[in-house]
Amino acid sequence: MPIIEIENFTKTYPLPDNKNETFCAVDGVSLLIETGEVFGILGPNGAGKTTTLEMLEGLNDIDGGHATIDGIDVQSCPFKIKEIIGVQLQASEYFDNLSLVELLTLFGALYSHDIDPTALLEKVQLLDKAKAKPANLSGGQKQRFSIACALVNKPKVLFLDEPTTGLDPQAKRNIWDLVQNLNNNGMTIVLTTHNMEEAESLCHRIAIMDHGKIVAEGTPQSLILQHAPEPPEAPLHGNLEDVFLVLTGHALRD
Amino acid sequence: MILSKLQLHLSKVFLMIFLRDRQSIFFSLFFPIIFMTVFGFVNNGQQEPLNIGVVNESDSVVAADFVQQLKDSLVFNVTIGTEGLLRSELEEGDQTMVLVIPEIFNTANLDRQSVELRILVDAAQLAQLSLVMPLLEQTLIEIEREFRDTEPMFSLVIEDVQARSQSYLDFLLPGLMAFTLMQLSIAGSGYNIIEFRRKGILKRLFVTPIQPKDFITAIVLARTTIVLTQLFVLITFAVLVLDVQIIGSFAAFFFVVILGTFIFLNLGFCLGSIAKTQQAAIMIGNIVIFPQIFLSGVFYPIESMPEFVQPVANVLPLSFVSTGMRDIANEGVSLLAIMPSLIGIAVWLVVSYVLATRLFVWKEVAN
């Protein structure tokens, strides 16, 4: 049963160099995301991944189409949506001079939940940093802390925007374990990534976006079977990165 | 109005953030305290005595008596010497003027002819002379009366109706407090919001169920507490250390403080909504703050300003606030008596509130 239903999402912006013309950042995106799955959205920079997530999270206006999460309309009930989702943004800092425990307690208060900050920190392996300030955390620790903050309201859906970008292999694996763990306990997770290995090993299903449109959707295996180049062009069977490049081309993006 | 648990929690967080930022606490108190202390010492109500040189060419008792009277006067710091020496001291600026008492300065001559006293001056110090001359003349007249044994026909008695002496510091303190209040408030809503946005904190808050009114209430509550505490520290310092007098009611005084804080918090919210970068905020903030520092009667009375700026100066928000605070602190009047200031404050409250609610759109401010 799908927990997220997106129908024909559209988002248009005026062109930066010509205000009279517009371009579609998100161009008719429709998706069904099943309860309890890890769903990956892949795509080159500027493909519209983050914009799509932000439209679901209420951060961005929905210019066309509509969506529901757990049966609640995203556009008309933004505050009900906020109660049931957890969000880790691509880049966010936190208030200076507050410790991890104090910040988690604050986030709990924002949802009017009394929470146990130490349990959350334990979940993301940051218990020994309970009294540290976010500014003193490493990249991986910061991401884990961001995920802890996104978990305070025990969300039904967790949105992760490029959770492993810029992390070293150990920190990356650590985040994967965490995501898998949360998913094993029944949480639906929607993530964006540039990392094909991540998509292949973590996601049950993925959608590949380019120029605001979904160009392919399915399980990693089915996408490889459908789109990977034939054996003569690539050794053995090719991988997901080949799929990605065939679908979105080799041209550099900004 | 009942405050929710969330609002209380968030304002506690804002207070904690401020309390742990030692530098900004220090500097928000540093400026007004230094300013008051410097003025407290410079302007202690007493004039520095004027240096005058006296050349006494007469050996009469009257001349000696006259010199003694000058020496006794608090206004003068007398140096006795020869004309040549004192003249060169005058040229170097060590003396304000040199008074030459001629040989014929004695009682015998007083009856017959008037005695001329020469005064050597440096034209550059002319302004001081206008202060000194009446005093010298007065001293001479008194001596003359003594010897001629005449009673003065008139005498002036100066009576101070203000019953208490008011120093510049008494005047300065309410203005300085109003100024501090403005700075703290605009920083609390304006600059903080821009900083929170730059760091992505507002975006992160936006995806939680917090309502904009909770966020705003928490900032207002925390900032008002900070302003009241800081001003209380300043007032305590001024009264205990600098002996500044506050004669009005503290309740009325802080009532005006709170209203003023609300005005500048509203203006800060406008600033935080308009300005996209910290640089822009500082520029726009200065447009609001600078004219008010000079025109709102913080450091000197609006009445002493050029006539053409007074109509503008009189309607600035800080003018109403500082005038109201000063009237209560210096004259001890009631809230009723400062109704004109209160009406001005009320108008600014409404204007700034309407502006702030128009400009502060949670989604746009957060993104």
Could you estimate the helical fraction of the residues of chain B in percent? Answer: 55-70%
- The low-confidence parts of chain A are none
Count up the helices of chain A.
Answer: 9
How many strand segments of chain A? 10
How are the strands of the biggest sheet of chain A laid out side by side? Answer: 6-7-8-3-9-10
Radius of gyration of chain B: 30 Å
* Helix share bin of chain A: 25-40%
Give the termini separation of chain B: 29 Å
Strand content of chain B: 5-15%
Order of helices and strands of chain B: HHEHEHEHEHHHHHHHHHH
Tags for this model:
heterodimer, A: 254 residues, alpha/beta, six-stranded mixed sheet, four-stranded antiparallel sheet, 9 helices, B: 367 residues, mainly alpha, abc type-2 transporter like fold, 2 domains
Ordered list of secondary-structure elements with their pairings:
The complex is a heterodimer of chains A (254) and B (367).
Chain A lengths: L1 E13 L7 E13 L3 E5 L6 H9 L6 E6 L2 E2 L4 H7 E4 L11 H11 L6 H7 L15 H12 L6 E5 L7 H16 L3 E6 L2 H7 L2 E6 L2 E6 L1 H8 L12 H9 L6
Parallel strand pairs in A: 3-8, 3-9, 6-7, 7-8
Antiparallel strand pairs in A: 1-2, 1-4, 4-5, 9-10
Chain B lengths: L4 H15 L2 H21 L7 E7 L4 H12 L3 E5 L2 H10 L4 E5 L5 H6 L5 E4 L4 H23 L19 H31 L2 H6 L5 H29 L9 H25 L3 H18 L14 H6 L1 H15 L7 H21 L2 H5 L1
Helix pairs in contact in B: 1-9, 2-7, 2-9, 3-6, 7-9, 7-10, 7-11, 7-13, 9-10, 10-13, 10-14, 13-14
